[in-house]
Design goal:
Blueprint: H1 2-45, H2 51-70, H3 76-88, H4 90-100, H5 107-124, E1 130-131, H6 160-171, E2 177-178, E3 182-186, H7 189-201, E4 206-211, H8 218-232, E5 236-242, H9 243-246, H10 254-260, E6 264-268, E7 287-290, E8 294-298, E9 315-317, E10 320-324, H11 328-343, H12 349-352, H13 356-362, E11 368-374, H14 382-392, E12 397-401, H15 409-420, E13 424-430, H16 436-444, H17 446-451, E14 455-459, E15 462-464, E16 468-471, E17 475-479, H18 485-490, E18 493-499, H19 502-515, E19 518-520, H20 523-527, H21 531-542
Parallel strand pairs: 4-5, 5-6, 9-15, 12-13, 13-14
Antiparallel strand pairs: 1-2, 2-11, 3-10, 4-7, 7-8, 8-10, 11-18, 12-16, 14-19, 16-17, 17-18
Length: 547
């Protein structure tokens, strides 16, 4: 009993120390931001000599910013969400947007990212198992569809519409389609975690991990123990996490503990006092990659609720995919694109490649996989484009699971047009939310969908954090991309596109099983919402791109 009390006391002391350290860091950052804003406000309002000039300049900046926003390639919802506060507060609104509203990274970040993407694209062309020409399906005159150098295995035939989706994804970045890759779907976080630990334990050369949230708990401790053991065996380990996403939950002395163990560790977009930091752009990707032969991604972060070791918001359902074989290198290429951007290094990808013999031993699996990511360093949402492209080929069914349903007007139109044309569209959202305001926005979008014939379900046992779509039971996407503005336009995200792989049947079966635990949202329910709730929803929807 005394030993247990001492352990509990020690944990409490460590938690308090961690809270104080993080609280001090956040407080100092907030004070620095407030001080800078106060200096700006004082110059604007208190300097009688220059106030008219400063005020006029601020209004001109706001007008210029509004003109820029209205003529940009941004979604109309994002334009509206920023234009309203800028026009209401012209003295401060334009300057505030310039400091905090930009969706993309700095010009320097954008150029660096593009450079690293180009290197990754060149590298992937030489990987065994990569393909980009599909005879009998594609226009052989299109230069984008020339066969990848080093594609040593026979190419496979594929339907023209699926082939066009592959061509579109490949044109969007360092993304390659791979065949002969085993795909395994995990319907729960705890299932995926066991497989991850097994893969990590079997690492021979290197491990790369990247997560939005890392939290103290048994999940992290088990991973940390394995990483320490592998480093002692000579395995090289890279670990990357989002600083703001993990801020309040990181283990005490997290980065130092990893470095002391021999792990290469970096944080994305570290929190600091400068006004010019792009806190809108977070690293929401999730990867565990082993030797370039095995790769995991999906919704789970490293926190105990994701494996139901603790209860938060009822039963936590999350899903993941494992790629084993050539397709895993697609994940590795994406990982080191961001690692090099954050660290300033230039990783020798060639030195990390699996050998042909290793690939031959791991290869095997039907269909095609494409790992891709979506970045805030451009004006295009590849995440939404991939979903939209897949839905455009739907013949009879579209099944979506998302924790946050915050679609734009265009997205609602795509869903409703499909349903009204006779395609069965089903959407599963959480029954117990993790964020009440986002849940309110999610529910505010039910009515136009349900009235058009879209079937909307809520997962009654708790929170569902999975992000996936299945079309006609032969094509699917699974990854980190939520159906909201942040995922589509502000965050660094990733996913896997699959066609005719074995995991798709597993996903479809799990979808039907999950529906048995859901309640369907009816037409009477969405039409009987009180006027005041609809008014609140209207305001929340207007500013949802800023949430």
């Amino acid at each position: 009993m005394e030993t247990g009390a001492r352990v509990h006391k020690g944990r409490t002391r460590n938690s308090l120390r961690r809270f104080m350290a993080i609280g001090t860091r956040v407080t100092l950052t907030a004070l620095a931001l407030i001080l800078q804003l106060l200096v700006f406000g004082t110059l604007l309002l208190r300097s009688s000599e220059f106030a008219p000039w400063i005020g006029s300049l601020s209004i001109l900046i706001s007008i210029g910013v509004v003109a820029f926003i209205l003529n940009s390639r941004m979604q109309v919802e994002y334009k509206l969400a920023w234009t309203i506060p800028i026009m209401l507060m012209p003295l401060f609104g334009g300057a505030f947007y310039l400091l905090f509203g930009a969706r993309s990274g700095t010009r320097r970040q954008t150029l660096q990212y593009k450079s690293r993407q180009d290197l990754a694209a060149i590298d992937q062309k030489s990987v065994v198992g990569a393909l980009s020409v599909l005879p009998g399906s594609l226009d052989e005159q299109d230069p984008k569809l020339e066969p990848a150098a080093g594609a040593l295995l026979p190419v496979i035939d594929i339907e023209p519409d699926a082939a066009r989706q592959i061509a579109y994804l490949e044109a969007g970045g360092p993304f390659r389609a791979y065949r002969d890759t085993e795909t395994v779907y995990y319907p729960l976080g705890e299932d995926a975690f066991e497989a991850m630990l097994e893969a990590l334990s079997g690492a021979k050369r290197w491990i790369a991990m990247e997560y939005f949230i890392v939290s103290e708990g048994q999940m992290w401790r088990k991973i940390f123990d394995v990483l320490c053991r592998k480093v002692s065996e000579g395995v090289q380990v890279w670990f990357m996490y989002d600083d703001l996403g993990s801020l309040w939950r990181l283990p005490d002395g997290f980065a130092k503990e990893l470095r002391d163990a021999g792990v290469n560790v970096r944080s994305f977009n570290k929190l600091g006092p400068g006004l010019t930091l792009r806190y809108n752009n977070r690293d929401h990707r999730k990867f565990t990659i082993v030797d370039g032969l095995i790769g995991f991604t999906g919704g789970i972060n490293i926190a105990d609720e994701y494996i139901n070791a603790i209860e938060r918001f009822g039963h936590w359902k999350d899903t993941s995919i494992r790629l084993r074989g050539p397709g895993a290198w697609g994940m590795a290429s994406l990982y080191f694109t961001i690692w090099d951007l954050v660290s300033g290094e230039q990783t020798d990808l060639g030195a990390l490649h699996p050998s042909d013999e290793e690939l031959a031993a791991q290869s095997g699996g039907a269909g095609v996989v494409v790992s891709y990511d979506d970045t805030p360093f451009d004006d295009v949402s590849l995440g939404w484009a991939a979903y939209r492209g897949m839905m455009s080929r739907a013949k009879f069914q579209v099944d979506l699971i998302t924790p946050y349903l915050v679609p734009t007007g265009e997205m609602i139109t795509v869903f409703t047009a499909l349903a009204e044309s006779g395609v069965r569209v089903r959407i599963i959202t959480p029954g117990i939310p993790d964020k009440s305001y986002v849940y309110a926005v999610t529910r505010s979008n039910y009515r136009p969908l349900v009235e058009a014939g879209v079937e909307v379900y809520e997962y009654t046992p708790g929170f569902i954090h999975a992000k996936q779509m299945i079309v006609d039971n032969d094509t699917a996407i699974i990854g980190t991309i939520n159906f909201d503005f942040r995922s589509f336009y502000l965050h660094q995200e990733n996913a896997v596109w699959m066609h005719q792989t074995s995991a798709i049947a597993q996903m479809a079966a799990d979808y039907e099983s999950t529906l048995e635990k859901c309640r369907r949202v009816g037409l009477t329910e969405v039409r009987s919402t009180s006027w005041w709730r609809r008014a609140v929803w209207l305001v929340l929807r207007t500013f949802s791109p800023l949430m």
